Every structure is written in C-alpha cells, then in structure tokens.
Amino acid sequence: MANKTLFASLRGELIPQTDTRNAENAPAYALAPKHALAQYAATGCFGRTFYATADEQLTRVLELCEAIAADGDAEFVARVAVYSRTQSFMKDMPSMLCAWLSKRDPRLHEAVFARVIDSARMLRSYVQILRSGVVGRRSLGSASKRLVREWLASRNEDALFSSSVGQSPSLSDIVKMVHPKPTGPVREAFYGYMLGRSYNADVLPKLVMQFEQFKAGESLEVPDLPFTMLSALPLAQKDWVSIAKNASWQNTRMNLNTFARHGVFEAEGMTGLIAARLRDAGEVEGARVAENKRPRSDTALMFAPYWNCDGAGRVCQGSMRAPEKLCLQAMKPWESAFFESEFTHAAIGARLTAHPEGFLGLWRDLAGSEAGFPVEFLVKSGETLGAFVQARED
Length: 394
Known about the structure:
The protein has 20 helices and four strands. It has 394 residues and is mostly helical.
C-alpha cells in the first residue's frame, strides 16, 4: 500500500499558500481587483452585513474600480455594470458603477447607459448617486443630462406616468433637472402636468385623464396604474378588487396582506383567481418582465421589432419555408418557419423599435443575453387588441 503520510504531504505542497486574513482573522486567499469587483457586483446590495457596513462596502467597490482603471481596463468596470444589471438583476450596484463611469470614462458611460439604466427606478438611483457626490461629482453634467433626456424621449407618456412612483428624486424632479424639450403638444402638456405648471388639459395622455377623472369622482373605472399610485385615494372594496384583478404576479405576491386588509378575498371568485395566478408557471416565468398582465380589449399593441417586417405587421417571406395551412394548429410551425428563416433587412420607412441604435443595436444587445426583453424599446402600433381583432372579423 502507498505511504499515506508521504502522499498526503505532497498533496499539501501542491495547494497554494494563503496570502491574507479574512474578517474572522482566519487564513484566506486575496482576490484580484477584477475578481473582487465581480463578486461585489453580483452579490452586493450596499446593505449592512455581518462583517461590513454599507459605507465600507461602497468604499471598497470604489477602490476596486480605481485600481482596475489604473491598470488601463476601465472597460472591465463597464462590462461588470452591464452584467450586474442584465444577468444578476441588481439595482444599486450597476447604477453606482454607471455613475462612476460618468466621471472616469465618458465614452464607456455613454456605451452602457441605456443597458444599465433600463427603468425609472434605475434612473432615480443613478441620479441620486451622482448628486450624492460619492463618485466625485454632485451634478449631472451636460453628457449625463443629454442621456437622461434621451431616456425620457424614448418612453411614451403612459410608461412615464405609470413609473412616476418614488421620491428623492422623483421623476418630476429629474425632468426639472434636465429640461427636456417636448416633441409635441401631448408631451408638452404631460410635462406641464408633472411639474405643476400650466398645461392644456384637452391633450393630456388618456391614462392621465383617466387618473384625474377617477380622483375627482367623475369616473368609477379604476385606471390601469400601479396600485401604489392609487392607494392614497379613498378606494372602495370594489376598486381594490379591480386593482387585484389587473395586478401582475410580482405585485400580487408582494401585496397579499394589502389585498386582505381591503376585503379583496371576500369578493366572490377572487381567492381562486389569485391562487391560480400565483401558481401559474407562465406567470412565474414572466414575473421579471415589465408587464405581465392578461391583455384586455383596450390593451395597446406594439410593433414586433423583427427584421423583414413592416409597419403593418406583414412579413417579407423571401425564401422562408412557410406552412401550407393558416390555422391555430399551424401556429408552432409558423413560429419555427419565421425564426429559422434568414433575417436580411430592416423595415424601410417604419420605426419598429425605440432603441437609440435601431434594429442593429437592439439585437446586438440581446445576443447571448438571458435577461428579459427590454420592453422600453417597444413602439406602440397605434392599435388596440380589440380594434385588431374587430378588423380581422370584419
């Protein structure tokens, strides 16, 4: 039999020696700056932990960023910011890294901004971090203001209004900071409404009108808005039932107690409806996207941002091997035929995506990504689901 003592000692010699001490003063291995930053970016939330306060974590992350940049690889920080948001689904960490890039490398900052700042919540965090001074500046600066204005311009009024929950700063505060130029009477009225200035009420977005009419008691229909925008209003039980019916899986999960307090489960059928939603595999899978609601007749349809399609939803089939039948049973074969065909050209004269770099930029960003589809880059078709169905029936 082999000498166990001999081979045990050889095995030990092959193990690298520890080179530092951890927080418990035990032997440990020091991580290289890139490795350490990646670990923080994928797991850190800037909250107090057992071994480190939030301030200590922030200081350490900033030190790592500076060390990596000093080695001439600020691009790694940019890549980590994108990964932290699109793959790890973090919030404060990618916002902070993006804000740091605004001071350290404006070119990289601009390259990653749209991929990292992908929601109003992220935008508020980004602006708050910049103004705090932790990354070396206390104002947005001309480049950051321009990117924020472009972010606002790429969203429609309904999306901006629905995401206007939150303070310090609020979305209205951000609009005041960057002074976006309205592109038409609707946007001008919407900005006036948000900022508490004079506006033409006749051209306000429909969703804003519905909200104001509901607040004033002129309408009994609950507007399709996040319930956090409605909870301060004197809502009756039937209103809460309507809100619960339209809630996404995520909102349902987070607000079961709120629904219970307002008598939602006392309404006939609501307990079964919510239970079915929470256990529905499709709802759970789609919970990470921006909207996961059952469409209604007034649901706005979006353009499909695919190549070889036009503004009317027609497909240039070219050499695509299309199924012979056009029926429900042939839906899967049609999907396969479309996605397995060659995408050769964008829609000429039609704007099917709001991505700042068009089709190429949209699908380049999505290539190899496992993150949810960036719904903010969808463009409204100008048609509702009900109108679409009615036109086909006629």
